[in-house]
Design a protein that fits this description.
Oligomer: single chain
Shape: globular
CATH superfamily: Vaccinia Virus protein VP39
Radius of gyration: 19 Å
Structural class: alpha/beta
Helix content: 25-40%
Length: about 300
């Protein structure tokens, strides 16, 4: 897998050239596309192997990632169940329950799907996380979905949970997903929402405007329009709440806002049993979207203009 070395001079979502620099955060410029309202980082000088190393999943000494990925994702089990219930409702009856999870990490979501009688596979850019998933018995390829070379029209569903914002070239990714998805298959994503009220209020201090992890941030309309270019139509969307451990919440706040209070609370909860306490959160700054290839058995969704 090669690193990405191509600075952008246009919007990576809609291709528009009417862009404006908004902020500098974590030493990265963040631009706004005035056409589709995507936020993006022009710099693509990223070492993915270093960024998503073992520390990203176990320790977060670099300042981002997870103190304990297994524990933090266990808190997301209920959310994964909601995702799958919505997918199962939208899945055409003639399709097999065969699913690919892009950005599968160590297989936390695959484990939930497998228990619901899905045939599961994954792909993951992190050498460490993919290897951990394979140790647990999951078929997880290391690299990007483009590099994985899956067969044509093989999967009924492709999922990207909190992954699309990490991908430097979404069009190459979606083109490949289109190739490997069956003719009436589904793609399902959950990703930060730039047009949410919380994002607008927080602006630069929005915790999901977080380079170099998050390179592109979308909204419902521009994500649906991008998918439309590859033959998909949006069929369902929602703002699904998540659950996080208390330690993860304070770790994220400490990294993003660098207030002494957050650092102190992180230090405190890390030494107490409440570090594992699970807190439900839904400030509606993420959107969940299911899109069907060739608009199968669905009606179109109307999106509010930004």
């Amino acid at each position: 897998m090669e690193d990405n070395f191509f600075p952008l001079t246009y919007c990576p979502v809609c291709g528009g050239e009417n862009t404006k620099k908004l902020w500098v955060k974590n030493s990265f410029d963040i631009f706004d596309c005035r056409s589709c309202r995507a936020l993006f980082v022009p710099d693509r000088s990223l070492n993915l192997k270093k960024l998503y190393s073992k520390d990203y999943f176990t320790g977060a000494a670099q300042g981002f990632g997870y103190a304990d990925y297994d524990r933090d994702k266990e808190a997301m089990r209920g959310t994964f169940e909601i995702y799958l219930a919505k997918i199962e409702k939208a899945l055409p009856r003639n399709l097999p329950r065969r699913l690919l999870d892009v950005g599968a990490a160590n297989g936390a979501f695959l484990a939930v799907a497998q228990k619901r009688n899905w045939e599961v596979r994954g792909v993951e850019v992190s050498d460490f996380a993919a290897a951990e998933g394979r140790k647990r018995g999951f078929d997880i390829k290391t690299g990007t979905v483009v590099e994985a070379k899956f067969p044509d029209a093989f999967f009924s569903v492709v999922t990207l949970w909190d992954v699309l914002e990490h991908i430097a070239d979404p069009h190459a990714t979606l083109k490949e997903i289109t190739r490997i998805t069956k003719g009436t298959g589904l793609v399902a994503v959950n990703t930060p929402d730039t047009q949410s009220l919380f994002a607008k209020l927080m602006r630069k201090y929005w915790h999901l405007a977080n380079p170099p992890e998050h390179l592109i941030l979308y909204n419902l309309e521009n994500a649906a329009e991008m998918l439309k270019k590859y033959g998909y139509a949006a069929v369902a969307h929602a703002h699904v709440g998540k659950s996080f451990t208390l330690e993860y919440i304070f770790q994220t706040l400490s990294h993003q806002q660098k207030f002494f209070l957050w650092r102190f609370l992180l230090w405190l909860v890390a030494r107490l049993r409440i570090r594992k306490l699970v807190i439900p959160v839904n400030v509606r700054d993420n959107f969940f979207l299911i899109a069907a290839k060739k608009a199968a058995r669905t009606q179109r969704v109307t999106f509010r203009k930004p």
